[in-house]
């Protein structure tokens, strides 16, 4: 019986497709829509301690080959998402969901993670080390010293399953250095990739989003080769106990298949979900299953990570 089920950190999911943080996950209404779709689970919008309005609009634009955004972390604050997830644990006790968070400072990140640690939350936590859009706040994951410091401090008290959302890296030496750091910690997963930061899209003579004079994170078709490279580079380098979530450029079942072939155990959909709505999950799942059927694969474990090389 052909299935796209998967496991992360020992939790089972009926489908390996889910939303990418930032899309369809700001409000409980949006999260309910993803939960009730063909997606295997959802991740919440990256939460800060206090609610935030985010950057001025327009701040997200779909474009022909993808999207550009500079949202600026609009969210309802950690308590909104945590309380919803604690409620869901009662009514959806056989499912597991992801909570995304990051503080605006190191101190705030610790406050957030200690709240989660001290709560009854039983799901997976994703620490976002890769938000490119808050003016004056560089991406943590491009600073390897800061990354190692935050992880060593966090794992001194955080004992629940934790993963990190990463930006794309573009250099083999960076893959080596980043993986050597991540391998020092009991991470459940790394999620590759967040948007390619600070691109610029121009329509006629003008940018298409207001914040930062039009600079914003790029998603969609533009980023699939970079996303696949990051998934596979970390698949090759990380301890097998650290699973990979593949995100970036998933428009079709074929794209999801390629992420899994590169080593992903779960695949997230961002730009396509924004363009198409939650019906994308059913379509992409059916396309993925058709490829598996044709190739004789019954589960994603039959081909996960089994990318072929030329000699
Ligand atoms: C935002 C964008 C990101 O890519 C991210 O990881 C977190 C937040 C944002 O602009 O809201």
UniProtKB/TrEMBL annotation:
Biological process terms in GO annotation: 'de novo' pyrimidine nucleobase biosynthetic process; 'de novo' UMP biosynthetic process
Positions annotated as active site in the UniProt record: 131
Gene Ontology annotations for the cellular component aspect, listed alphabetically: cytoplasm
Domain spans labelled Dihydroorotate dehydrogenase catalytic: 5-292
InterPro entries per the UniProt record, alphabetical: Aldolase_TIM, DHO_dehydrogenase, DHOD_1A, Dihydroorotate_DH_1, Dihydroorotate_DH_1_2, Dihydroorotate_DH_cat, Dihydroorotate_DH_CS
Binding site for FMN: 45-46, 128, 165, 193, 220, 248-249, 270-271
Catalytic reaction equation(s): (S)-dihydroorotate + A = orotate + AH2; (S)-dihydroorotate + fumarate = orotate + succinate
Binding-site residues, substrate: 45, 69-73, 128, 194-195
Assembly and oligomerization: Homodimer.
HAMAP family according to UniProt: DHO_dh_type1
Identification of the protein by name: Dihydroorotate dehydrogenase
Species the sequence originates in: Streptococcus anginosus F0211
